[in-house]
Amino acid sequence: MVHQRAIRGLAAGAVALAALAAFAGCGNQKGQGNDGGAAADGGSAGGATKIALLLPENKTTRYESQDRPNFEKDVKALDPSAQVVYNNGNQDATQQQQQVEAALTDGAKVIVLDPVDASSLGAVLAKAKAKDVPVISYDRYFEGSAYYTSFDNEKIGELQGNAVLAGLKAKGVDPKSGPVWMVNGDPKDPNAADFKKGATKVLKDAGVNIAASHDTLDWNPDDARQWVAGQLQGGKPKPIAIYAANDGTAGGVIAAAKKAGQTPVVTGQDGEVDGLQNILKGDQYATIYKSYAPQAKYAAEAAVALAKGQKPDAKDTYKNTPTDFVEADVITKDNINKVFKTGQTKVSDVCNTAAVKKLCTDAGINTTN
Which residues partner with 110 through β-bridges? Predict the structure, then answer.
């Protein structure tokens, strides 16, 4: 879809239609997570207040399985007449920019945005400001937002770095005895930079030799796998641990390490099913478990307040922006039961085969419920 200024009426009309089409389902294909008009009550909302929810991608399972349904549920509870209009950027910054423009064209009163690429938002944020439409930073911070909710991402990185050290200690390995590699997140994701900063600080303070580092494009597990596989083919010393920024990249790391016959300490983040299963198998030492329901609730409360012309009731401030942070936990095999307490993760999803079910039972997980 093309959004350009046109002088002739026909071209202008085409642009307007393109914008409306984008909001109704730009890139709307089955499985891509775009519905372009789902009301909070599941139907058409007519003249109701519209709140746009724009999430970045669907390779990370949390967005479709947790963030979206939780946000829609919370908005409905706060304002049953509000209409939540949802689109997923599918890791395409240009597509997401079109979705923001379309939301503005269609009359959204508030936009809740988790950006694919925060550095590319300047033009669309200027348009939102010109229309007096507040934009909320959801999960990933960007300048110019009216409110921000996420986890304290540098602190998350510190938790990850400490998990690497704890994994080495549990294995009886001196953290100074060999190289550690870092498989970071997407360089376009500002959270990834914070994770990396926090983890690097902890590891360097412990005297760890960070011998190699890689930024994983689009959080793609295959990119992580290929990089680690290439590193392992050389004659350089093999790593005693590999920091992985999330469970998806950790899966790629584990696949490459196993193929090369290596067993470094591997950590991850997000508490995804695959990551939890890798922990039960002993292939991954830890993950960072984040409860997404509070984050969605904070965003919903702020969005409804802003739509009514009110200020969000935030408990904190980040870069002069009203902010609410959510706490996170380090999860290992020893405390893995913690992830099942909120209902965000189901035992049946993790312990889903006979082999994994036995590992679950051995770890003290009740698989009978």
Answer: 51
- Within 8 A by CB and 6+ apart from 153, the residues are 191, 194, 195, 198
User: Both tokens of residue 293?
Assistant: 């329901």
Smallest Cα–Cα separation from 346: which of 59, 64, 66, 57?
66
Question: Domains in the chain, ordered, with CATH?
Answer: 9-145+292-326 (3.40.50.2300), 153-290+332-362 (3.40.50.2300)
Enumerate the H helices of the chain as residue ranges: 9-25, 62, 68-78, 93-105, 122-130, 153-170, 190-205, 221-233, 247-259, 273-281, 292-307, 347-350, 354-362
Q: To the nearest 10°, report the CA torsion of 288, 291, 292, 296.
A: -140
Q: Model confidence over 159-202: pLDDT tens digits? A: 999 999 999 999 999 999 999 999 999 998 889 999 999 999 99
Q: In 3D, which of 7, 2, 8, 44 has the Cα closest to residue 26? A: 2
Name the pTM for this structure: 0.76
Report d(CA 213, CA 161) in Å as an integer. Answer: 14
User: Could you read off the pLDDT of 90-140 as tens digits, one per residue?
Assistant: 999 999 999 999 999 999 999 999 999 988 999 999 999 999 999 999 999
Helix axes 122-130, 93-105, angle to 10 degrees: 10
Token pair, residue 187, equals 């360089």
Using alpha carbons, select from 248, 255, 246 the residue that is nearest to residue 228.
255
Q: What pLDDT digit, counting tens, does each position of 63-86 carry?
A: 998 999 999 999 999 999 999 999
Distance, in Å, from the CA atom of 100 to the CA atom of 212, rounded to the nearest integer, reads: 38
According to DSSP, the β-strands at 147-151 and 328-331 are: unpaired
Taking the C-alpha atoms of residue 110 and residue 71, their distance in angstroms, rounded to an integer, is: 13
Structure-block tokens of residue 316: 């904190």
In angstroms, the CA 166 to CA 285 distance is: 9
Locate 96 and state its tokens.
């997401």
**Using the 8-state DSSP alphabet, how is residue 335 labeled?**
G
Measured in residues, the chain has a length of 369
